[in-house]
Amino acid sequence: MAKAEKYQPTEKGQAFLDKVKEAKYDRQIINGLKKFLDDRAPADMLNFYSPEEKAALIAIKGTEQDIESRMPVKITRHYYDLAKNSAPLQTLIKASPLETFDMQGAPDPGNQMSYSPIEGLIHKYELGLIYVASTCSAHCRFCYREELIAKKEITREDGTTERKGLAQISELVNYINEHNKVVADNGGRHPETGREKLREILMSGGDPMVLLNKNLAQWFSALADAGIENIRVGTKELAFYPDRFDETFFNMMDDFHAAYPGVRFRMMVHFNHPDEFLQKDDQGNYIDHPDGGLVWVESTQRAVVELASRNWISIENQAPFIKGISNDPDAIRIMQRELKRNRIENHYFFCGRDIIGHKAFNLPIEDAWNLLNDSQKGLSGVEAHARLSITHYLGKTEVVAVTNEPMPGVPGGENGVVIFKLLRGAADAHNKGQVAIVGRNPEAVWFSGYEDRVIYDEAGLFTESMQSTSSIELAS
Ligand code: SF4
């Protein structure tokens, strides 16, 4: 891979960058399983894995089922303190032999190469996604980005095999400038792809919040100078290490806003379960706050209050539904209510994907729909904004409804139907709003589970090769 030239900030960008300050962070990360297996973790963490769990993990070390060659183990002290009293959080963060028990599934979690014009960029909509970091403060066991985080080699469209690389500022800025010029010269649409101007960039990885303020600031000012109007930051740091949202970070953000007042931020946060942000009493119950709502973990609340106090930053939660973590409608109801109370929008819940190493985590599509529907019973309209999304190669798709009764007179609908709707089509969005209706299959975890029972397919979800049905959306 050729090294991109160094990006030269504009005068305005440099003036902003000159003000950025750093702080030191003490995440107290335990990296890898070894410290747990060799009993060298801090004394109070030694029982995090039971003797039986350790024995099972040691037995598969170095075999094809080796857990860490699938996805490195990593946990912060903050998350450990939450997880030690939470079974769902332990499922999220602790390595388990179940992860590699069944490795069937698609090898490329995103089929991303067909939407990746330059290294580290996925350009599918008017929104582009960039990889800017290859790790997070801790690692979710279900992560869909394990090929980036575990530094695996992936096969590219030209057949070569190489590790996935991160986006480089100068190369990305050149791409945005060129794309947007062609779009402007062509009346608002790209003549080949039909895409509009690139006006929004989602910074992802890995987690951008593991970067220094200086690196974040370089990205922000370069994107702003390239004409990007909305910057999204995909992060799970509010769950893994909320103290990262400190004074130096907010000073940098405020200086950025003073220099680029037209640019908006969307913090795409990632909470899977309310145990990640709510305090619990000695009996394990959430605690009523005397002023209403529930008592939050202090450092998380402090960060959310700071983010929410800036009207140029919105906060949106999106998270996959994962077996053993989020399949509890009561917990998901509490989460949606508390997030909305605290100015965090409930954006998407995602279905799992048919990816190698995810059999242990995937909920069937129809179970996921029932989970969301049950969790929203009793919520007010504004609390229940979240939709269930499953991302097709053609674009982001909503699982709109699952009927519980047979549909008389509809061939294939004898056991009820599932209705999908394209929320946004890739490129020019011509097919937004189109639907597909299929007969039910309670076992299906992906579109392929419905291929033999399509009733109506205006959206074309089942006419594309299943080989190419995959997704590029974010877990964080
Ligand atoms: S799911 Fe998101 S936060 Fe979790 S390890 Fe993967 S990229 Fe990091």
Word description of this protein:
The longest helix has 17 residues, at 169-185. The protein has a twelve-stranded mixed sheet, with helices on one face. Strands 1-2 form a two-stranded antiparallel sheet. Strands 5-6 form a two-stranded antiparallel ribbon. Helix 12 (298-308) links the parallel strand 9 (264-269) and strand 10 (313-320). Residues 465-476 have low confidence and may be disordered. The relative contact order is 0.12. It contains 14 helices and 16 strands. The chain has 476 residues and is an alpha/beta fold. It starts with 10 loop residues before the first helix and ends in a 19-residue tail after the last strand. The chain has helices at 11-17, 34-37, 51-59, 67-70, 77-83, 87-93, 146-149, 169-185, 213-225, 237-240, 247-259, 298-308, 329-341, 365-375; strands spanning 30-31, 74-75, 121-123, 127-131, 153-155, 161-163, 200-204, 230-235, 264-269, 313-320, 344-350, 387-392, 395-402, 417-425, 435-439, 454-457. Helix 9 (213-225) packs parallel to helix 11 (247-259) and helix 13 (329-341) crosses helix 14. The protein binds iron/sulfur cluster. Residues 136, 139-140, 143, 145, 206-207, 236, 270, 475-476 line the site of iron/sulfur cluster.
